[in-house]
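Sequence in, structure out.
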Amino acid sequence: MQSLAEVVGAHARARPEALAFAEGEQRLDWAAYDTCSDGVAAALVAAGLGAGDRVAVLHPDGPAVHAAYLGCEKAGCVVMGIGPRAGPAEVRHLLARSGARALLAPRIVGDLDLHALVSEIGRAGRALEHLDFDPLAPPQGLPAAPASRRLGSHDVFLLNSTSGTTGLPKCVVHDQARWLAFHELAVEAGALTGDDVFLSALPAPFGFGLWTAHFTPTLLGAPCVLMERFDADGLVRAIARHRVTVLAAVSTQFIMMLNAPALAGADLSSLRVLFTGGEAVPYERAAAFEDRTGARVLQFYGSNETGALSRTRLGDPREVRLRTAGRVIPSMQVRLFDEAGADVTHTGRGQPGCKGPLLSRGYHDDDGANRSLYTPDGWMLTGDVCTLEGDVLTVVGRTADFIIRGGKNISAGAVEAAVAEHPAVSVCAAVAMPDPVFGERVCAYVELVDGAGLDLPALQAHLATAGLSKEWWPEHLVVLPELPRSSGGKVAKGALREDARHRAAEA
């Protein structure tokens, strides 16, 4: 099984000037992709990084982040992929949790001063090197990284973050083999070929972004269009300009695309497939997308940890493609479990667990989290409740306390912990408020300390100071004299969710 670096090298030899990546006016051909990643690998080895060392990579979405990932692979280093919208608290946590020895990142990304952050970490007594060179213009004149350092397809090549129900993100362990297997399923589902033109509107470090930008286009030798920052009008123009045939976007993004002024009169006739996921597909909006573009909407159901349990395919009828999670993938064994962990597959309803070639290797350095991720006999669990009719899986609820905003899982517990630190807050709870564009937004319900006051801007300013990633900030604040309690004295979040649904409907 060839590694990604071997595939890129073959493309560079066979058709060096063919397009690999495009972002805005920036273009990267296969020869440059191969050469730049060689330079990254040489720089990592010259910096003293050893085989198996973790290198955190934090770059805006574009060709540079892929050159950085490939360079780490060639140097035998494991990437700690950090999303470009992560806040400082999340970055510090992921650097510490992964044990990264270096951070490959520009000095400034968004609002983050990474040079200052690395200096702060150094003053606290932890050695961390900041490598702030451009992966598309790495240092010159360095000895090449030894070929023996390169990672194989079954070696750990990347850690990325995932939201848990409490606390800060955990690190999921990936080898390339799982994504090479995933690629084969994607090719079959969407009849993908090297003649396709991909556009991945997703952050590179996460599972959906990995297969739609870092793996499948490269394995096919197809070009991939990227967006440094998502913009709905820009997405429409990029599809038309590059004659994109395969789009990868979460539901929020394609809904925003449908609402974009640029859509009027835009020629999107090249588009034939939209892969979406990360949340339930909104039937009416997905059907409108198909009717407007002529493309088919497809999805894989699963998680960063499990890969895919089921999928929809081009030949499936609309009712299956847009109202279910598709048919169970034959190579993935799928079972349903009840709250006590008993196998209830025969009843057709429960929490899915799976075994198979698409699984991650679990969580890095987190035995407690791994115990929750697996059943005692080794089935990896999702955080959902599903029904299974024949071989068709449908998501009907959740077991985990997540808010899914624009396809991103947000831990309600982590939001609550941050909000509770505000001196005006006595008790708080975070729940999902339905939203027509993002699916859900974070709504914070709070009881205040006697005599205190709090509004949403003041709460958000507090969270900014605390370093909480902006995507996790509450976008609605409801102050109540007393939060509802269950019979056991806990906050009755079911009642708050119902109240949030009522408020959203009224709005």
